[in-house]
Amino acid sequence: MSEQNQNPEKRKVVFSGIQPSGNITLGNYIGALRNFTRFDDADCLYCVVDLHTLTVRQNPADLRKRTASLAALYIACGLDPEENCIYCQSHVPAHAELAWILNCFTYMGELNRMTQFKDKSAKHADNINAGLFTYPVLMASDILLYQTDLVPVGVDQKQHVEICRDIAQRFNSIYGDVFTIPEPFISKSGAKIMSLQEPARKMSKSDPDETFIAVLDKPEDIRRKLKRAVTDSDGEIRYDPENKPGVSNLLTILSVLKNQSMDDTVAALQGLGYGALKEAVTEAVLAELTPIQTRYNEIIADKDYLSNVLKRNAEKAQYLAGKTLRKVYRKVGLLQL
Ligand code: TRP
Known about the structure:
Blueprint: H1 3-6, E1 13-18, H2 26-36, E2 43-48, H3 50-53, H4 60-76, E3 84-88, H5 94-103, H6 108-112, H7 115-123, H8 130-144, E4 150-152, H9 158-175, E5 183-185, H10 219-227, H11 245-257, H12 262-268, H13 274-301, H14 303-332
Parallel strand pairs: 1-2, 2-3, 4-5
Helix pairs in contact: 4-13, 5-8, 5-14, 8-9, 10-13, 11-12, 11-13
The chain binds tryptophan (TRP).
The site of tryptophan has 14 residues, from strand 1 and helix 8.
């Protein structure tokens, strides 16, 4: 983010969101959350995207709980809610309002190509609802409302940021420069953490418990899950995602959490066995997550604190979003009062 220092006039805007749809995993943490703290000199908004979560049936009480929990986790991961706008999507009506307008600027064919839609509709064949289909339009609205420059996401969300850019460019080409065109920000190392049991698949909070590590997992669960993580039978510690997906995934976790290059990570384990690799990964994961869990427990215990943060930040977000939304309404020809 060095360009910013050269141009102090315009601070960059960073926007990202995570769905409160289940346990936040080590994969979400490494792919997204951990990177959120890197943008010191930008205006950052981190949203709990609860409306997106409704595309799949939810238990209402659980959803409410997970929404608050995710907001607390953002803060516990080191995002100061005074410096970063941490808020909940449904508290800012502008998201759903812009989504309607942008739905009218998005083609069925474009949405049909989205791999997440294809995956999710295969997985929830009994509930292929219109919200699941237009999910990327709501995501585009999230991003475009704040004139966002950078969107830190895991690599699986790149396609959604691309369709967001296409929609924004289409709109701008008709109405002038209404939206900033955002760029995805995908961290090079460890953007994608795989399942501990089926290392050819992404680590996912909607898969069975033993396949992922949750950021809030107890230390004994973390130890057990890593101990049981699938490796292979050749016994050699080497980074080779194609032929050795399990071992490579463990090495990725280790190298990212230790901020160490892959070469150095592998070199440090030369001559050792998989037991030692798993032990090293376990220590690194615990060292990373334990302080987060401690802070999380403090935050979640203070209900007033969290609801004040969410309220204040929702007002701030609505103020910023309102500026873009009013401009859009005017441009498309909606009558102003
Ligand atoms: N679709 C994202 C995911 O599932 C979550 C999301 C919603 C998001 N809106 C966003 C991410 C805006 C970045 C920016 O991971």
